[in-house]
Design a protein that fits this description.
By secondary structure, the protein is of the alpha+beta class. It is about 40% helix and about 20% strand. It has helices at about 15-25, 35-40, 45-60, 115-130, 150-165, 165-175, 210-225, 250-255, 265-270, 280-295, 305-315, 325, 365-375, 385-410, 415-420, and strands at about 90-100, 100-110, 135-145, 145-150, 185-190, 195-205, 230-235, 255-265, 300, 330-335, 340-350. The longest helix is centred in the C-terminal third of the chain and has 26 residues, at about 385-410. It is a multi-pass membrane protein. Its EC number is 1.1.1.34. Catalyzes the synthesis of mevalonate. The specific precursor of all isoprenoid compounds present in plants. It catalyses: (R)-mevalonate + 2 NADP(+) + CoA = (3S)-3-hydroxy-3-methylglutaryl-CoA + 2 NADPH + 2 H(+).
């Protein structure tokens, strides 16, 4: 088919004559696809019509993309624009994860065979050894606007202004007026020529907090504009935050929840459950997660597969999957203790970005997974505690995943397990095209 040729339309009969006329109008460009929800007042009907429009325009079948069984009103103006259905991802359960004396059944949404089973084995090893301990080190979401002046001297003057403790109190009051939960903690500044980057760090209750901190930052910028009328605001986000990108500032200073999680795995459990030796795990961790990652020039990637577990829990609980990038920053440490008999393992994760309100957390499936963990919604008695607890569960799950995968590699089991459980046996050429 030449570039100029259009695919043959794939036509599925509409449910009514009225819908058929609307479909034709959208195909012909008379009705914008994005306006269907407001025009029809029925989000599901709009999604159904839009799906049929796509089939006719592209000539490709969307038969395998489900439409039924989803509340499209719940995503309107919040989670997704111009929906045509939803993608199904299976959710498995790992656990119980014994963490800080409490048991958690961890929901993991994934299509990678072995991932849930492996994490579950790590949970079993942790449980049999008395559980893991997790400590929250910091809690602060960030946003860093970029502002420009005529000279570097003027940029430096504003830097000194916002770093002055007395001036900071005033800025904090301005910032905190934007929300009941937002509380400005500090402002970290960096200068590049005549450009100033101000990294605002703020507690955000049980929300992940990006919108909350942005609103507070805007209040402060409006205030500073009166003090520094020659200040030119280039953008409310100048990438010194840094969101959805691997960045040293997050690895060093933290973003969201900074957490360390540890456990001592007994020699007996290492041998019977993990099928390996303490000394072999310690050596592998040094040569793979530390030396190997250093040889690769890793930034926050001193681990075996933290991202696997973070992504699976994020998707299941309605977090922003793109923030898996910095949330998966992790260094895994292993050391022989108790005269070399037992294994001390820890994961240090400085940038876990999670919330239990807002965004995808309010969707039915994701809300159910949060409820399973006991962290659904906002904690009214102790604002922020649900999100902090979720961050510790993420870290504890990563600890379990690291422990199990490293053991599999150490024992030479990785390839065999993935060949058995992570290969498709279906003929994908038989699916609809």
């Amino acid at each position: 088919m030449s570039v100029a040729e259009k695919p043959a339309p794939l036509i599925t009969p509409a449910s009514s004559e009225e819908d058929e006329e609307i479909i034709k109008s959208v195909v012909q460009g008379k009705i914008p696809s994005y306006s269907l929800e407001s025009k029809l007042g029925d989000c599901k009907r709009a999604a159904s019509i839009r799906k049929e429009v796509m089939q006719r325009i592209t000539g490709k079948s969307l038969e395998g993309l489900p439409l039924e069984g989803f509340n499209y009103e719940s995503i309107l103006g919040q989670c997704c624009e111009m929906p045509i259905g939803y993608v199904q991802i299976p959710v498995g359960i790992a656990g119980p994860l014994l963490l800080n004396g409490k048991e958690f059944s961890v929901p993991m949404a994934t299509t990678e065979g072995c991932l849930v089973a492996s994490t579950n084995r790590g949970c079993k090893a942790i449980y049999a050894s008395g559980g893991a301990t997790c400590i929250l080190l910091r809690d602060g979401m960030t946003r860093a606007p970029c502002v420009r002046f005529g000279t570097a001297k003027r940029a430096a003057e504003l830097k000194f202004f916002v770093e002055d403790p007395i001036k900071f109190e005033t800025l904090a009051n301005v910032f905190n007026q934007s929300s009941r939960f937002a509380r400005l903690q500090r402002i970290q500044c960096a200068i590049a020529g005549k450009n100033l980057y101000m990294r605002f760090v703020c507690s955000t209750g049980d929300a992940m907090g990006m919108n909350m901190v942005s609103k507070g930052v805007q209040n402060v910028l409006d205030y500073l504009q009166n003090e520094y009328p020659d200040m030119d605001v280039i953008g409310i986000s100048g990438n010194f935050c840094s969101d959805k990108k691997p960045a040293a500032v997050n690895w060093i200073e933290g973003r969201g929840k900074s957490v360390v999680c540890e456990a001592i795995i007994t020699e007996e459990v290492v041998k019977k459950v993990l099928k390996t030796e303490v000394s072999a795990l310690v050596e592998l961790n040094m040569l793979k997660n530390l030396t190997g990652s250093a040889m690769a020039g890793a930034l926050g990637g001193f681990n075996a597969h933290a991202s696997n577990i973070v992504s699976a829990v994020f998707i299941a609980t309605g977090q922003d999957p793109a923030q898996n990038i910095e949330s998966s920053h992790c260094i895994t440490m292993m050391e022989a203790v108790n005269d070399g008999k037992d294994l001390h393992i820890s994961v240090t994760m400085p940038s876990i970005e999670v919330g239990t309100v807002g965004g995808g957390t309010q969707l039915a499936s994701q809300s159910a997974c949060l409820n399973l963990l006991g962290v659904k919604g906002a904690n009214r008695e102790a604002p922020g505690s649900n999100a902090r607890l979720l961050a510790t569960v993420v870290a504890g799950s990563v600890l379990a995943g690291e422990l199990s995968l490293m053991s599999a590699i150490s024992a030479g089991q990785l390839v065999n397990s993935h060949m058995k459980y992570n290969r498709s046996t279906k003929d994908v050429t038989k699916t609809s095209s």
